[in-house]
Amino acid sequence: DAGVHSKAWYAATCDRKMAEDALYRSNKDGSFLIRKSSGQDSQQPYTLVVFYNRRVYNIPIRFIESTRQYALGREKSGEERFDSVAEIVENHQHTSLVLIDSQNNTKDSTKLKHIVRVS
Question: Which of 8, 31, 93, 109 meets the CB 3.0–4.6 Å disulfide criterion with 26?
Answer without folding.
Answer: 31
